[in-house]
Specification:
Largest sheet: 2 strands, antiparallel
Subunit structure: Part of the cohesin complex which is composed of a heterodimer between a SMC1 protein (SMC1A or SMC1B) and SMC3, which are attached via their hinge domain, and RAD21 which link them at their heads, and one STAG protein.
Protein name: Cohesin subunit SA
Strand content: under 5%
Number of helices: 53
Family: Belongs to the SCC3 family.
Keywords: Cell cycle, Cell division, Chromosome, Chromosome partition, Coiled coil, Nucleus
Oligomer: single chain
Strand order of the largest sheet: 1-2
Main location: nucleus
């Protein structure tokens, strides 16, 4: 038994008693029979103080055929492991041979191997190895560490480093395995390696700490394997000894008994040696590093302790070690939590270990259950899988509440989580079968074994109360319960057959749920991809999956082609059941109807569909019938003619009936009969539903529907539903005509007719926008937006110039009506849309909001596609803050799209929306409003949000921001104060709002905007300091401040693309970005050329520039700045302004460039000289408090078993496990000065 935690934390390895290695070879003896023959020899020679085992002397050694001179380590070992091309065992064998020849040189080679694997360029020389302590060596290596890059082999990317970690770990494992019979017991090699790795693991340098921790943990794993083999050999030896001793005295071999006793003693001694090594690693490395500040290091520790517990459960699988895994399940990083769960899965998978896990399970079960809702999906998946293993081991561990918390995850949108939850659900509810069921002959239908399991699925679906998510439930269980879910014969039997004696029949609600589940299973089998919202899209199926898909489609067609007519006949009056059943033919293999001689069943199906159409008026049912006809009317199959005839007969009857009823209905005048209105509506519903999927152009439905709509406008008393369906039907007529014209086979008269009908219908919809009925107005608005988008200038794109006569541009009056509709029906409070008290229900409120969102999205598409003027979006954008929760995503996306189309026009629209809000506030509060009022603060906050939407790349938005400031300044000075020039303009406070966009200006643009601002100012304005002038003062200050910040903002667009950026592991290079001169000058030229070629900022020559152009604005007091400005005569100002404006941008750019270069030139080397140190671990108290928050660990307060070591190593070097000795006072002091962020 390993007594790890009982040893002292300070280990002292022999310094004066190092042994001289004998000539014994490290022979391979798996049976352990001659393991320690030469061990006595290995302990003979002693060296004096100060000597470190010089072995064969100081002469040059050889390693892998390469000379090593003057104690300098050859890089061959690191290179071989890095390339990973050589067999690792041969590499280790070469090192062992070198060790036997001169162990100091070989050990120095190994030490430098670990140093190089950490990414350090330093080399440990033979002189350093002989005369310096480990702490001094590590400190020396820390000073020589390459800090140009934060990367090191374990974190480097690229093909050459791809397999480094695996090769590194393999080398350590092979090294211990090859040395396990003698070298690891020489009290020299392992002592030195463990001491080095322990010291490195306490280093402040992440690379040292990470690499050494990985090496130490893999070394520990290899030692655990050795200890396990020793334990097995000891057990075998003990059994042999007991068997020999129990023999009769005459048959007992005393020599064999003595040999077995000696062998057991030697095995015990080696077991103690290994335990000492493992305890040293555990106490010196694991106990500190499992709570390291770096998540990767913590994950390594947890992963390896899981390996130890699984490999050597007798020694490690106890609460003393399990508690570390339990505590770390509260880690803040998902990577570490994931390692905890995977480690536990390996333990729970073995049922023989369940007894040792009982206390841990009872203590940490709640935490595991809560991790099923982890924010990291990978962690949640593994937590569910772990609970499935716990459930598999014992049904009594998890309570009903625990299981229910996992059950609902089958409806998760993340498929791996849902599949894992589906497997848990299957194990809990579906995997338990009666033994009698397996012994009885296999039956079909409702008498089959799956009947009860299908009922269980139905009951679970109903109890979950998520009735619209059957597809998610089926998809979750598809991988583990496909056999049950595809037992369609059993489902049909449960629906059609009479229940057996003593069997309880399904209720109506259960039958509805079963039909829905059955439909979802058929869709899943036919489409082979997850439902909408779960998955990234359709994936490419493998050959095996394609074959399964074809087999399932054939089988489902053969089954339901016969059963579907009977199911429709039984449930023909139930709209919900019929709607689901009518979707089944969409997934059929229609060829089966012919090859399987099933035409009579097809006729029966068509009769049932016709009866359902004549019987129902529900829109969902009628649309399902229309889609079914559309699926069956496929010209590729021979059944097309049969189905087409049935469809034509049905539609002829319905259209004739509609025309006849409509003529009578319109003749009745203002008092139509309710029965006649119902008949007209029912027939119109059927025709509209079919017109959605079928071309009914030959029946000329436009004339009758237009007459109906025109009568509704004239009389004003047309029933709401009739108007809505007439609008929809006419809309379908237009779209089918357009499809026919787009094919290019129609006549010119057809296009003219379509153009006439389309414009007349748009005018009709515009007239219905003023209807008193809200539902009618919404329908007219939606159709109108669709038509305007379809028949916009986009219609001629893609080589369809022939359709240009159909382009329709809305007039200004129509655009205004559409905008007013949005403002009146979308941007309203929830309470205003009460609709006769029906909105009190939460579900109806959500539905109403969804409808309003669709209306807003329809209008925003008109803005995006330039169908209506972009400035109409100002009325939409100004609602961004007030209705953020309801429509924020739609408005934000609209702003983004409009900016992509025209940045400048979008900026003008944004500032226009702010101006509109400002004018509304003035009309409500008056010109003397309080700037601290909620209305003004709301506008200012909206401006801040608008500013954030421009992003960080100021080069892309440069002109747009300049135009925005130009319009804002003009608006602020637009309305003079009627009280005289001594009073501020009425809109001056708008500058306070405009200042929110100042941070988006580049430095040279700030000066340009400031110059443009001075054009509108008078001499008296510059001297004013009253509160009413504060907006002007603050806006001017925002244009004059922020030199350093502007330096960064100017290069944001360049440095992000052109400069070399240090990797994510490197130190942040804040304030060090470089601006290439070529790019800076070219960008300046671009800005200047744009100024000359377009009217964007319209910063006209200003006389104010002559006194301020060569100065830093922020260094001037207002009195100094403007006294020089306004002392010039108008003639002098006019003469000077022309030359000043011409050179303004070039001077600003050169002035900024010199400042930027001077700033970049200072402080660079000082930053680069930062020592690469960081916080090694989290605070012990804070970390444990975080882990144990809200938890009581009394049950885990377990003392570790006492040590069984036969020898205690008391003469170890004092600094091996003392972190304080790794770094001197100067390095430790810099650590607390804020340098702990290196590579965090």
């Amino acid at each position: 038994m390993i007594a790890a935690p009982e040893l002292q934390s300070e280990f002292h390895y022999p310094q004066d008693t190092d042994t001289r290695f004998s000539s014994d070879t490290d022979f391979d003896d798996p049976d352990g029979r001659n393991v320690f023959v030469g061990k006595g020899k290995a302990k003979k020679g002693k060296k004096g103080p100060g000597e470190k085992g010089k072995g064969a002397g100081k002469g040059p050694g050889r390693m892998n055929g390469h000379h090593q001179e003057n104690g300098m380590e050859n890089v061959m070992l690191f290179e071989v492991v890095r390339l990973g091309k050589s067999a690792m065992q041969s590499v280790v064998d070469d090192w062992i041979e070198s060790y036997k020849h001169d162990r100091d040189v070989a050990l120095l080679d190994l030490i430098n191997f670990f140093i190089q694997c950490s990414g350090c360029k330093g080399v440990v020389t033979g002189e350093m190895f002989r005369n310096m302590q480990n702490s001094e060596i590590i400190r020396k290596m820390t000073e020589e560490f390459d800090e140009d890059s934060g990367d090191y082999p374990l974190t480097m990317a690229g093909p050459q480093w791809k397999k480094f970690k695996s090769s590194f770990c393999e080398f350590i494992g092979v090294l211990v395995r090859q040395c396990q019979y003698s070298i690891i017991y020489d009290e020299y090699m392992m002592d030195t390696v463990i001491s080095l790795l322990t010291g490195l693991s306490d280093s402040q340098v992440r690379a040292f700490r990470h690499t050494s921790t990985l090496a130490a943990m893999k070394l520990m794993t290899a030692l655990v394997n050795v200890a396990l083999n020793l334990s097995i050999n000891m057990d075998n030896t003990q059994r042999q000894y007991e068997a020999e001793r129990n023999k009769m005295i005459g048959k007992r071999a005393n020599d064999r008994l003595e040999l077995l006793l000696q062998k057991r003693k030697e095995l015990q001694e080696n077991q103690d040696e290994i335990e000492n090594m493992m305890n040293a690693i555990f106490k010196g490395v694991f106990v500190h590093r499992y709570r390291d500040a770096i998540a990767e290091i913590r994950a390594i520790c947890i992963e390896e302790i899981g390996v130890w517990m699984k490999m050597y459960s007798d020694a490690f699988l106890n609460d003393s070690y399990l508690k570390y895994v339990g505590w770390t399940m509260h880690d803040k990083q998902g990577e570490v939590r994931l390692k905890c769960l995977t480690a536990l899965q390996g333990l729970y998978y073995n049922r023989e270990l369940n007894a040792k896990l009982e206390l841990f399970t009872s203590r940490f079960k709640d935490r595991i259950v809560s991790m099923t809702l982890d924010k990291e999906y990978d962690v949640a998946v593994q937590a569910i899988k772990l609970l499935t293993l716990v459930l598999h081991s014992s049904d009594e561990v998890l309570t009903a509440e625990d299981c229910e918390s996992v059950y609902h995850l089958v409806y998760s949108a993340h498929r791996p989580v849902a599949v894992a939850a589906g497997e848990f659900l299957f194990k809990k509810l579906f995997s338990h079968r009666d033994p009698e069921d397996d012994s009885m002959p296999k039956r079909r239908g409702r008498q089959s074994v799956n009947a009860n399991l299908i009922k269980t699925a139905v009951f679970f679906f109903l109890e979950s109360e998520l009735h619209e998510h059957a597809a998610y439930l089926v998809d979750s269980m598809w991988d583990c319960a496909a056999e049950i879910l595809k037992d369609w014969e059993c489902m049909i039997s449960l629906l059609l057959d009479e229940p057996l004696p003593g069997e309880e029949a399904l209720t109506d609600r259960q039958e509805t749920a079963l039909i829905e589940i059955m439909l979802c299973t058929i869709r899943q089998a036919a489409e082979c991809h997850p439902p909408v919202g779960r998955g990234t899209g359709k994936r490419v199926l493998t050959a095996k999956e394609k074959k399964t898909q074809l087999d399932d489609r054939t089988r489902m067609t053969e089954i339901f082609a016969i059963a579907l007519p009977a199911l429709l006949a039984k449930y023909s009056v139930d709209a919900e059941k019929v709607t689901n059943l009518l979707q089944l033919p969409q997934f059929f293999d229609l060829e089966i109807y012919t090859t399987g001689r099933l035409e009579k069943h097809l006729d029966s199906l068509l009769r049932q569909i016709r009866e359902i159409v004549e019987k129902h008026t529900d829109t969902d049912v009628l649309e399902a019938c229309s889609k079914t006809y559309h699926a069956l009317c496929n010209e590729e199959f021979t059944i097309f003619n049969r189905v087409d005839i049935a469809r034509s007969q049905l539609l002829d009857e319905q259209v004739d009936k509609f025309n006849r009823l409509l003529e009578d209905f319109l003749q009745e005048g203002e008092d139509p009969d309710e029965d006649d209105a119902y008949q007209v509506l029912s027939t119109l519903k059927r025709i509209t539903a079919f017109h959605n999927a079928h071309d009914l152009s030959k029946w000329d439905l436009f004339t009758s529907n237009y007459k109906l709509l025109n009568t509704g406008i004239e009389n004003g008393d047309m029933p709401e539903q009739i108007v809505i369906h007439a609008l929809q039907c006419t809309h379908y007529v237009i779209l089918w005509s357009l499809a026919k014209v787009s094919e290019g086979t129609s006549k010119k008269e057809d296009m003219l007719t379509l153009r006439k009908q389309m414009r007349a219908f748009c005018l009709m919809c515009q007239r219905y926008l003023t209807s008193v009925n809200t539902a009618v107005k919404e329908q007219a608005f939606t159709i109108l937006c669709d038509l305007l988008l379809i028949f916009s200038h986009q219609i001629i794109s893609g080589g369809r110039e022939a359709l240009e006569p159909l382009v329709y541009t809305p007039e200004a009056s129509l655009q205004s009506e559409l905008l007013n509709f949005i403002l009146d029906h979308v941007f309203i409070d929830q309470d205003e849309d009460s609709n006769n008290g029906q909105q009190d229900d939460e579900a109806s409120k959500i539905e109403a909001l969804h409808k309003r969102r669709n209306l807003l999205a329809a209008y925003c598409k008109l803005i995006i596609y330039n169908v209506v003027e972009m400035n109409t979006g100002a009325d939409i954008f100004k609602q961004y803050m007030r209705y953020y929760n309801d429509y924020g995503d739609i408005i934000k996306e609209t702003m983004s799209k409009t900016r992509q189309i025209d940045k400048i026009q979008c900026a003008k629209t944004l500032i226009l929306s702010l101006q509109q809000l400002f004018n509304e506030m003035l009309s409500d509060l008056g010109p003397s409003f309080d700037r601290s009022s909620s209305a003004f603060c709301g506008i200012k906050e909206l401006a801040r949000r608008f500013s954030l939407t421009f992003g960080l790349d100021q080069l892309k938005t440069r002109e747009a921001i300049a135009m925005l400031h130009k319009d804002g300044i003009e608006f602020a000075f637009k309305e003079p104060n009627p009280q005289g020039e001594g009073h501020p303009p009425l809109n001056l406070a708008f500058l306070d709002i405009l200042s929110e966009f100042s941070s988006k200006l580049m430095r040279q643009d700030k000066r340009t905007v400031h110059t443009y601002l001075e054009r509108f100012m008078t001499f008296q304005m510059a001297l004013q300091r009253e509160d009413c002038w504060l907006p002007l003062i603050s806006y001017r200050n925002s244009l004059q401040a922020g030199g350093d910040d502007d330096t960064m903002s100017v290069v944001s667009g360049i440095s992000s693309r052109g400069s070399s950026v240090r990797s994510k592991k490197a130190k942040p290079a804040t304030g060090k970005r470089k601006l290439p001169e070529e790019e800076s000058s070219s960008s300046s030229d671009i800005w200047m050329s744009r100024e000359q070629s377009m009217q964007t900022p319209v910063m006209m020559p200003s006389p104010h520039l002559t006194s301020t152009i060569m100065r830093e604005p922020k260094r001037l007091r207002p009195e100094e700045s403007y006294m020089g400005v306004y002392t010039m005569t108008p003639d002098q100002q006019q003469q000077c302004s022309l030359n000043a404006h011409k050179n303004m941008f070039l001077q600003i750019w050169c002035h900024w460039s010199s400042d930027a270069c001077s700033r970049r030139g200072t402080g660079l080397m000082e930053d680069d000289e930062e020592p690469i140190v960081e916080d090694v671990m989290m605070s012990s108290e804070g970390r444990i408090e975080d882990l144990n928050e809200g938890m009581d660990f009394d049950t885990m307060d377990i003392d570790l078993p006492p040590s069984k070591n036969r020898r205690e190593r008391s003469e170890l070097k004092p600094d091996f496990f003392d972190p304080a000795s790794i770094m001197d006072e100067s390095v430790r002091s810099t650590h607390f000065l804020g340098y702990d962020a290196f590579q965090r």
